[in-house]
Design goal:
This protein is α/β, with parallel strands linked by helices and about 250 residues long. The chain contains nine helices and ten strands. Helix 3 packs across helix 4 and helix 4 crosses helix 5.
Length: about 250
C-alpha cells in the first residue's frame, strides 16, 4: 500500500499539487487520470522520488519516504518496477538482455539464475520465442510486454506504469491492460498507472484517482464512475459520444 498525505508541489509560483491525499491499494490496479496539466505526471514522479513535495508525506507500507536514509531509499528503489511511456528499451540490446539488465545491475545473481528468471518472466508475458530479437524487430505491443517483463523481473512490490498504452491500437491496449491487471493480482503488487486512456479506466479501473488543477477531484471504482454526479469527472470521462452511450445504457440497466 502507498499512502499519500496532503502533499503539495510547486514549480516557481505555480502550485501543481495542492494538498492531495489518497491511498493506492495493494493487489489492485490504481489509475491516475486527468487532463493535461492536472498534475498526474508530477504526482507519479513524486511517488517515484523524482520530485520532492514541499509539504505532506508519501509512505510505502508504513515507510515514510522523506524520513528514510540514503541506504533505505536505495533499498526501496529495488522494490520498484517501472514501465515507461515509450517502453525505454535499449535499442542495441536483445529482448533477453533488456529484461535481464536490472538483475545484472542490482543483484548478485549468477548468470544461470538470471537466465532462469528472464526465461520465466518472458514466458509470463507470452514472449517465448523473442529472446534474441532486437526491439526494432518486434511490434509495439511486444515491446510493451518486454517493458513489463523487465519491470517485474526483480519481483517488485510496487509497479508504476506511465501511459502503458501510448501508441498502441485498441485491441493491443486491452491485451496490455489485462496483462498488467493479471500480474498485479498474481503477485499482489501495488500498481499505479498514469493514463489518459478511457478504455483502460473502464477495463481495469479498480481504484481511480481523478485530478483537476492539482486537486483530488474524485476517487472511486470503474463501477462508481458510472453513477457519479461530479461534473468534472463526467465531462472528462464522457467527452466522447461512445462513452456517453455506454454510461446511459449502464444506468438504464
Amino acid at each position: 500500500m502507498i499512502e499519500v498525505k496532503k502533499i503539495e508541489k510547486s514549480f516557481g509560483d505555480t502550485k501543481v499539487l495542492n494538498g492531495i491525499s489518497t491511498i493506492f491499494e495493494t493487489g489492485k490496479t490504481n489509475l491516475i487520470i486527468g487532463q493535461s496539466g492536472s498534475g498526474k505526471t508530477v504526482l507519479l514522479k513524486s511517488l517515484l522520488g523524482i520530485h520532492t513535495p514541499e509539504k505532506g508525506t508519501i509512505s510505502f507500507d508504513g515507510r515514510i519516504y522523506s524520513q528514510l536514509s540514503i541506504n533505505e531509499k536505495r533499498e526501496l528503489r529495488t522494490e520498484i518496477g517501472m514501465v515507461f511511456q515509450g517502453g525505454a528499451l535499449f535499442d542495441s540490446m536483445t529482448v533477453e538482455e533488456n529484461v535481464g539488465f536490472p538483475l545484472k545491475m542490482f543483484t548478485n545473481k549468477t548468470k544461470a539464475e538470471i537466465q532462469d528468471r528472464v526465461d520465466f518472466v518472458l514466458n509470463r508475458v507470452n514472449l517465448i520465442d523473442a529472446h534474441s530479437k532486437l526491439p526494432s524487430e518486434i511490434s509495439g505491443g511486444m515491446q510493451k510486454r518486454v517493458a513489463i517483463a523487465r519491470a517485474i523481473v526483480n519481483n517488485p512490490k510496487y509497479l508504476f506504469c506511465d501511459e502503458p498504452n501510448s501508441g498502441l491500437d485498441p485491441k493491443t491496449s486491452i491485451v496490455i491492460d489485462n496483462l498488467i491487471k493479471e500480474i498485479t493480482e498474481e503477485y499482489n503488487i501495488t500498481t499505479v498507472i498514469n493514463s489518459h486512456d478511457m478504455n483502460s479506466v473502464m477495463e481495469i479501473g479498480e481504484n481511480i484517482l481523478f485530478l483537476k488543477d492539482g486537486l483530488k477531484a474524485w476517487q472511486g471504482t470503474k463501477e462508481e464512475i458510472f453513477h457519479t454526479d461530479n461534473e468534472a469527472v463526467v465531462d472528462f470521462v464522457y467527452s466522447s459520444n461512445l462513452f456517453k452511450k455506454v454510461r446511459e445504457a449502464y444506468l438504464k440497466g
